[in-house]
Amino acid sequence: MKAGLHKNKKGKSDKIGYLLVSPYLLHLCLFVGFPIVFCFVLVFHKWDIVSEMEWVGLTNFSRLFQDKLFFKAILNTLTFLLVHIPLQLIIALFLAELLNQKLKIRGFFRASFFMPVVVSGVVITILWDQIYAQDTGMLNLILAKFGMPKMRWLTSPELAMPSIAIMATWKNVGLYIVLFLVGLQAVPKYLYEAADLEGASHWYKFTRITLPMINPTVYMVVILSTIGGFSLFIEPYVMTGGGPMNSTLSAVLYIYNQGFFFYHMGYAATLAFFFAAIIFAVIMIQRKVIEKESAY
User: Fold this and answer.
1) Which residues form the domain of 25?
2) Cα-Cα-Cα-Cα dihedral sign, residues 276, 91, 124, 80
3) How many whole angstroms from its chain centre is CA 231?
4) Has residue 163 been placed in a domain?
5) Are residues 248 and 179 in the same domain?
6) How many of the other CB atoms lie within 10 Å of CB of 26?
7) Which of 52, 197, 204, 288 reaches 20 to 30 Å from 224, CA-CA?
8) Are 253 and 237 a contacting pair, CB within 8 Å?
């Protein structure tokens, strides 16, 4: 009797649980599952939104491997990552280390650094577009006061992408400061106290205690920075349109142009799947490298 009653209660509890998660499952199916399946179907079709789909088989893949501009866009994205990720890590960890100290207005500084994260990316991009302006931008005005020549921050093929990387770092660094702060505050204090008794320097404590203890946080920051960097879109779209000479054309911007400017929806879906595979491969390589370094 008790077993039957327990079974009925468990069945009722399961039904309530399924009922509670059903909105999330519905959202997942409609806004994640269906787009992925539909995108996979588009890979094998030619479609311009207006006319009916046309089956083309593997033609989109054949076009992809002959598309030099797409691979240039991937190279531009990797260039962005090479500047953005190390800069993000160094600045975020340095500022988190400072904010982890006993400061009188520590809360104010934490809120200030996090503020750009919650501001619209378009607003931040427009702001930095004005800062980088060649004739009236703040940076060039400062350079001019010191007698230095004005820089073509966004009109030079060599400087445009690093300039965007610096701006993206400024916008996102607040999030990673918070993550590093959480990691730093989780490091046991007795480890530092024991090191102080041994007369260890601050650099020794940082390299031998802090970094090994926050290695999971470093890994998470690298992964999040990589995913965010690969999704680079708003900055080049608003600031440069992918120029000059396609030097800031990111992979996502190129996929967007193919899909919503040229209406090559099938080809855009193929590019998206291929690019997702590249992101997955890069993240797995990063994971192996970080785990290998942490093992020593």
Assistant:
1) 2-42
2) negative
3) 6
4) yes
5) yes
6) 10
7) 204
8) yes
- Whether residue 5 is predicted with pLDDT greater than 50 in this model: the reply is no
**pLDDT digits 0-9 by tens, 65-108:** 999 999 999 999 999 999 999 999 999 999 988 888 877 777 77
Residue 29 sits in the same domain as residue 83: no
Tell me the mean pLDDT in the region 198-225.
Answer: 87
Tokens of 26: 């519905």
Q: Is residue 134 part of a domain?
A: no
The answer to whether 249 and 242 are in contact (CB under 8 A) is yes
Tokens of 276: 């997702």
Does 149 fall in a domain? no
- What residues contact residue 175 under an 8 Å CB cut-off, 6+ apart? 114, 117, 224
Instruction: Tell me the chain's radius of gyration from C-alpha atoms.
Output: 25
pLDDT digits (tens, 9 = 90+) for 243-264: 899 999 999 999 999 999 999 9
Residues 26 and 167 in one domain: no
Same domain, 177 and 31: no
3-state secondary structure of 46: strand
Q: How far apart, in whole angstroms, are the C-alpha atoms of residue 53 and residue 128? A: 42
Distance CA 98, CA 130 (A): 30
For the cut 70, the answer to whether the pLDDT of residue 114 exceeds it is: yes
pLDDT (0 to 100) of residue 12: 62
The per-residue DSSP string of 47-97 comes to --SSS--EE-TTHHHHHHTT-HHHHHHHHHHHHHHHHHHHHHHHHHHHHHH
Domain count, the chain: 2
Q: How far is CA 292 from the centre of its chain?
A: 23
